[in-house]
Amino acid sequence: MKINDNCVGCGQCASFCKKGAIDVKGKARATDACIDCGICVLYCPVKAIEVLV
């Protein structure tokens, strides 16, 4: 998963992450717990997240 510079740090992605794998301190970042499921992509209001395949 990649979180680009469009991230505004709102935390919506983290609140929907079932693994708790997104850390939001300022801007969001994926932790090692991320399994690239992509659920966060659906809830990012500024389209700052993309799943790398």
CATH top-level class: Alpha Beta
Cα distance, first to last residue? 9 Å
Task: Please provide the count of β strands.
Answer: 4
Low-confidence runs of at least 5 consecutive residues = none
Q: Please state the overall shape, judged from the principal axes of the Cα atoms.
A: globular
Count every helix, treating DSSP H or I runs of 4 or more residues as helices.
2
Biggest β-sheet strands, sense, barrel: 2 strands, antiparallel
Spatially, the strands of the biggest sheet line up as: 1-4
What structural category arises from helix and sheet content? alpha+beta
What is the averaged pLDDT score?
95
Order of helices and strands: EHEEHE
From the 3D structure, determine the CATH topology. Answer: Alpha-Beta Plaits
Radius of gyration: 9 Å
CATH architecture: 2-Layer Sandwich
Strand content: 15-25%
Number of domains: 1
Q: Roughly what percent helix?
A: 10-25%
InterPro entries: 4Fe4S_Fe-S-bd (IPR017896), 4Fe4S_Fe_S_CS (IPR017900)
GO molecular function, one term: oxidoreductase activity
Organism: Methanosarcina barkeri 3
Protein name: Ferredoxin
